[in-house]
Write a structure and sequence with these properties.
Elements (H helix, E strand, L loop, with lengths): L5 E2 L4 E5 L5 E6 L5 E6 L2 E13 L2 E3 L7 E12 L8 E12 L3 E8 L2 E8 L7 E9 L5 E7 L10 E5 L8 E10 L2 E8 L7 E6 L2 E6 L3 E7 L4 E7 L14 E7 L2 H4 L4 H4 L16 E5 L18 H13 L4 E4 L4 E2 L2 E5 L5 H11 L2 E7 H6 L1 H11 L3 E5 L6 H16 L3 E4 L8 H4 L3 E4 L16 H4 L21 E2 L13 E2 L2 H10 L4 E4 L3 H6 L1 H9 L6 E8 L3 E8 L2 E8 L4 E5 L9 E8 L10 E8 L5 E5 L4 E8 L1
C-alpha cells in the first residue's frame, strides 16, 4: 500500500510501527536526526546521521524536497529456514528525498532501521559516515570490545553502564542496551561493498566506527593472514548508484522476544528469483579438528590420512549424519590444488558419494582468493559439497567484497559455505542461501586452550550474537566438567557445563550446518547422548521462545514437521522451570528427554535419559543444575 508523496511542511516528520507501539520522530533541520519511543517511553534520544561523499555532506544543511510514506506487508519464505519456514515482513516506510540521495526509514513492530540511498552514479569516494545511537541515561550495556580494526571477532562480553565503558575501545555489533524493561539491540544489515560497522561508546551514545579502505596489506602469521598496515582516507573509493547498509535498532519487551526476530534477514536483499537453491541440504557435520582426530579402537593409525576420513564417512553413513568436515592439513599450506600425499581427496569424495555423505573442505581465505574459480571448479569435479573458509579477521570494504565473491562463485559450483575468522552476520545469507553459517563467536574450540567459553557466555550469545544470524559454535563435547575440574586440553578437549548443556545447544543454537565436534570413539562410549543428537534437525518450521534472561538461562521450543523439540540452557545458578506446552495443541504429549543426572552438580557428565507422558493441561517440570541443560523431544498424540 502506497501513500502519495507529500511536500515537506516544517522540519518534523513522525511515523509509527504497524501496531502503533513504536513512534519515530525525524527532524530535518540543519542536520537530520531521529528519536524513537515505545509505548510512550523514550528509547533513543535525538541521534544525528550523515554521510560524506567527496566534499558533500548528505543529511546536513540540505533541503528535503518531499516525503513518501508507504505500508508493506508481505510473506517471506526462507529457502533455508533458521527459525521458520515463512514469516511476514510488515513495516511502515518513511522516505526522505533530496536532490541526489534519499534517506529511508522502516518502522517495524520490533524496531527501526534507516539507510542512505544514492540516486545517481556518483564517481566520488565515500569518505565517512556519521552513525549515532543516542540514549538518555547511563543504561546497562552488553558489548564485545576491542581496540583493533583487525581481529578474530571473538571477544568476551563486557557488561557495564555506557559511561563506564573504555573510551579507547569499540564494540563488534550487535550491542545490547537495556533501556528500562526493554532490550535494545544495535546492528547493521544488507552490508555490500562497504565496511562493517563497529560501535564506539561516546558519552551516552554509541557511534559508528569504520575501517577505511586498505592501502598497503602485509602477509603475516607464516602466510595464514593478510592484514592492512596503511589505509586510504575513504571507506569505499566510488559511491556509485546504490543502497547503503541499514543501521538497525531492535526493540524488544523482554529477552525471550529477541528469539523470534528475523529483522536482519528481512532488511536484507532478496535472492534472484531464478536462483536454484534446490541442491542446498542442511544437516549435521562430523568434524575432525576439535577432537584432534582422537580415534581409537581401530586397526589404522588415526590422523590426517585417507583411512581416517574413510572411517569418518562410514561412521556418518551408519548414523545418518549428512556431512564430514576435513579441516586443515588435507592440502599444501599455500596451494589448494596440491593435496597432501596422505589424503586422497578425489578417492575420499568418490567413496563419500557412494555412501551419500557430503564432504566439506577447510581452507584459509588467502589460498582461495588466489584462484577461486579454478579451485571451485576442481572441488565441483571432485564432488565436494561445501567449504569452510578461515582467517579473514577483517571487515573493511575490500574484505566484505571477498565474502560476496565467495558466495557468488560457490552458488555457481553448488558449494555450501561456512565462514570462520569472520565478522558476525549482516544479512548476506538472504541473497545467497548457500551461506549456511559462520563463526564470529567464542565457541567450543576455546575450551582447547582457555576457560573463556563459560556457561554464562553460552546463555548470552543466543540473545545477542544469534539475533543477527546463524552461528557456528560447534557443540557436541562428550567430556564435560564444571569450572573447578575443567582444564584445557588440545588432544582430548572437554566442555564447561554438563553433558545435557551440550545437547541442549542443538536445539537452542541456530546453524543449518551444525557440527558434531567430538570423536566417534567418544560418541560410541555415550550411545544415549549420541542417539539424541542424531534425532535433532538443523532447520525449523516454527520457533516458540518459552522463558529466559540474558546471561541466566534460555528455554525454547522448535518444531520440525510434527515433532517438537525443547532446549533449555542454564547459566551458573540452578533453577526449576514449569513450562506450559499448550501451544503444541490438544492431546497428550509424549516426551523423550535427556536431562542433568542427580549428581550432575558435581559430575558434569551425569545424565538421566527417560520418557514421560503429559496429559493435555499438564506442565513440563524441569530441574537444571548449574551449567546444566535439558533436551526434550515431544510428540503430541
Amino acid at each position: 500500500m502506497f501513500f502519495p508523496c507529500l511536500e515537506v511542511a516544517g522540519n518534523t516528520i513522525e511515523g509509527f510501527s504497524p501496531n502503533g507501539r513504536n513512534r519515530l520522530v525525524i527532524e530535518t533541520g540543519a542536520q537530520v536526526s531521529y528519536s524513537i519511543f515505545r509505548d510512550g517511553s523514550q528509547i533513543m534520544n535525538k541521534s544525528f546521521l550523515s554521510l560524506r561523499v567527496g566534499s558533500q555532506l548528505w543529511g546536513v544543511n540540505d533541503e528535503c524536497v518531499k516525503v513518501r510514506r508507504s505500508y508493506v506487508s508481505e510473506i517471506v519464505n526462507f529457502p533455508v529456514p533458521r527459525k521458520y519456514r515463512q514469516t511476514i515482513n510488515n513495516y511502515n516506510l518513511l522516505e526522505l528525498s533530496y536532490r541526489t540521495y534519499k534517506i529511508e526509514f522502516r518502522i517495524y513492530d520490533e524496531g527501526v532501521a534507516y539507510r542512505f540511498v544514492s540516486l545517481f552514479n556518483s564517481p566520488l569516494p565515500v569518505e565517512d559516515e556519521h552513525v549515532t545511537f543516542g540514549f538518555t541515561q547511563n543504561h546497562k550495556t552488553y558489548s564485545l570490545l576491542t581496540n583493533q580494526l583487525q581481529n578474530w571477532f571473538e571477544q568476551d562480553y563486557t557488561i557495564r553502564p555506557i559511561l563506564q565503558l573504555p573510551r579507547d575501545s569499540f564494540s563488534i555489533a550487535p550491542v545490547m542496551v537495556e533501556v528500562d524493561k526493554y532490550k535494545v539491540l544495535l546492528a547493521e544489515a544488507n552490508l555490500y561493498n562497504y565496511a562493517g560497522m563497529y560501535l564506539r561508546p561516546d558519552g551516552l551514545s554509541f557511534v559508528g566506527t569504520f575501517a577505511k579502505y586498505p592501502d598497503v596489506e602485509n602477509i603475516i602469521e607464516d602466510g595464514n593472514k593478510r592484514y592492512v598496515s596503511t589505509r586510504e582516507d575513504y571507506i569505499v573509493p566510488i559511491c556509485g548508484k546504490r543502497n547503503f547498509p541499514w543501521r538497525v535498532i531492535g526493540i524488544f519487551d523482554d529477552a525471550a522476544s529477541i528469539l523470534r526476530s528475523e529483522l536482519i534477514y528481512l532488511l536484507s536483499e532478496e535472492k534472484e528469483e531464478k536462483s536454484d537453491v534446490s541442491w542446498i541440504r542442511p544437516g549435521k557435520v562430523l568434524w575432525d579438528w576439535w577432537n584432534d582426530r582422537n580415534i581409537y579402537g581401530v586397526d589404522f593409525k588415526a590422523g590426517i590420512n585417507t583411512n581416517t576420513y574413510l572411517y569418518l564417512i562410514d561412521y556418518a553413513d551408519r548414523h545418518k549424519i549428512e556431512y564430514i568436515l576435513i579441516d586443515e592439513g588435507w592440502s599444501d599450506k599455500n596451494d589448494l590444488l596440491k593435496t597432501n600425499p596422505s589424503v586422497d581427496i578425489p578417492y575420499i569424495c568418490a567413496y563419500a558419494k557412494q555412501k551419500k555423505v557430503g564432504i566439506l573442505l577447510w581452507t584459509k581465505w588467502l589460498n582461495l582468493e588466489q584462484k577461486m574459480d579454478e579451485v571451485f571448479s576442481v572441488f565441483e569435479k571432485w564432488g565436494v559439497s561445501g567449504v569452510k573458509i578461515d582467517f579473514m579477521d577483517r571487515n573493511d570494504a575490500k574484505m566484505v567484497a571477498f565474502y560476496e565473491k565467495v558466495a557468488i562463485n560457490a552458488m555457481k559450483h553448488k558449494l555450501l559455505v561456512d565462514f570462520h575468522g569472520s565478522y558476525p552476520n549482516e544479512g548476506l545469507r538472504r541473497k545467497y542461501p548457500n551461506l549456511m553459517t559462520r563463526e564470529g563467536v567464542i565457541g567450543l574450540e576455546y575450551n582447547k586452550w582457555s576457560k573463556r567459553a563459560t556457561v554464562t557466555h553460552d546463555v548470552i550469545i543466543p540473545y545477542l550474537r544469534m539475533w543477527v544470524g546463524p552461528m557456528d559454535y560447534t557443540p557436541g563435547a562428550m567430556l564435560n566438567a564444571h569450572l573447578e575440574t575443567f582444564y584445557e586440553n588440545q588432544h582430548e578437549p572437554m566442555s564447561q557445563g554438563t553433558r545435557s548443556h551440550q545437547l541442549a545447544m542443538y536445539v537452542v543454537y541456530e546453524s543449518p550446518l551444525q557440527m558434531m565436534a567430538d570423536s566417534p570413539a567418544k560418541y560410541d562410549e555415550n550411545p544415549a547422548s549420541l542417539n539424541f543428537i542424531k534425532e535433532i534437525p538443523t532447520v525449523w518450521d516454527e520457533t516458540i521462545p518459552l522463558e529466559g534472561e540474558v546471561g541466566e538461562y534460555i528455554a525454547i521450543a522448535r518444531r520440525h514437521n510434527d515433532i517438537w523439540y525443547i532446549g533449555v540452557l542454564n547459566g551458573s545458578t540452578p533453577r526449576e522451570l514449569e513450562l506450559d506446552l499448550s501451544f503444541m495443541g490438544k492431546g497428550k504429549k509424549c516426551v523423550s528427554f535427556h536431562e542433568d543426572g542427580i549428581n550432575a552438580d558435581s559430575q558434569a557428565k551425569d545424565v538421566r535419559v527417560g520418557y514421560c507422558t503429559l496429559q493435555e493441561n499438564d506442565k513440563l517440570l524441569i530441574s537444571v543444575t548449574r551449567g546444566g541443560g535439558y533436551l526434550g523431544i515431544v510428540q503430541v498424540k
